[in-house]
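Working notes for the structural subgroup meeting. M.R. asked for a predicted model of this chain before we commit to crystallization trials. I am recording the input and output together here so anyone reviewing the notebook later can reproduce the run.

Input as submitted:
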Amino acid sequence: MSLAGLGLQGITVSPRFIFGVDGELRNNLHLIDEHKLLYTAGHNIVVYSTDEKNQYFLQGQEGTEKITTIAVSKSKKYLAVCEKANRAMCTIYDIHSQKKRKTLPDPDIDCTDYQSKEFLSACFSPKAEN
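Returned structure, recorded in token form:
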């Protein structure tokens, strides 16, 4: 039953905590700093602060099936989230501002010869930190 069916139109539901971890993904737990853990849970990336006992989330992209791999840059500034879809996509986030920096392949460019459905691995070049 939807929220509208309950007479709660205009109300949105936002998660406060997400528990669990995707055990099928390799290397899906990262220590961002002394007090922050980053991990996958379902179709979400969770950043948990052990100091403040709170979480923030980066939700998977709409229209994708699942997160297939993640990578964190050496500086712990950037996160790559790769997802399975009709055309696999990789979204690069600034971890600290929680903002999307880039999507690969670029959705504004027609890549008709690009047929991959998922990424199996991802990593950042140690020289590409800016």
